[in-house]
Write a structure and sequence with these properties.
single chain; alpha/beta; 9-stranded mixed sheet; 4-stranded mixed sheet; about 35% helix; globular
Length: about 325
Amino acid sequence: MAKGLIASFGEMLIDFVPTVSGVSLAEAPGFIKAPGGAPANVAIAVARLGGRAAFVGKLGDDEFGRMLAGILRDNGVDDGGVLFDTGARTALAFVTLRADGEREFMFYRNPSADMLLTEAELNLDVIKSAAVFHYGSISLITEPCRSAHLKAMVVARQAGALLSYDPNLRLPLWPSPESAREQIMSIWDRADIIKVSDVELEFLTGQESVEDDVVLTLWRPEFKLLLVTLGEKGCKYYTKDFRGSLDGFAVNTVDTTGAGDAFVGAMLRKIVDDQTILQEEEKLREVLRFANACGAITTTKKGAIPALPNEAEAVELLKRD
């Protein structure tokens, strides 16, 4: 097994972000194009922190798709698992930034290239060489991508990878909230590491609470780590043997896009080369503090990928705190 490769599976797209915050899409005077897509963000977050990352997914054979593949390469991400579809466009998302930096989305995917990835097109060599295989739930929404996703998970598991899952709920993309919940949970038991946000926790449990008893309804005996991110309030962690929480970092938040992906990338970057972190609470707390710092830094700039920190920036914030 290639030492330390983190392969990220799913969608990469262009976010169009308004030039001003706090307005609706219709009121926005203009938009800046920002590369995005949670699994791609995670791959770049890993690489920017000095880790080895690969991305597996499909882009449109268009200017935006070629641009995104170039961004992966420029950021040191292996793009051997990237395919181009001549018949479908690269996905686009228009993102509204509310005054508080939170987001609303409008997607253009009918269908977009990422949805058309088939099992037969998967680069199995990349998947088999991964020590960690990371994925979301957007790739579960429609066929053929859903079958490709499920096959990739099986191949990664058989090759001995840790499976990492961040559902990354985007309700507007699903036919209904019920189907979102059902499909997100359909692969729940198969992961080793799962990270959900407080909003996703509420959606999946139906309860407006981040208390342990609510979180633990999502725990499975097979898990190595379950994480709940709480935005600026930090995160909570659960393993077989211990549980706890960590405060976040106070920063000047401009745009929360990509913060969760920075957190996941930072955590996986550390765990991939030392899985004892999952058994030792002190080590885990240190890693999650680092991940919190990376998430916090990402909120201080617009867009996800440009805002993802390097190791030195994260260490600087940890020292300052």
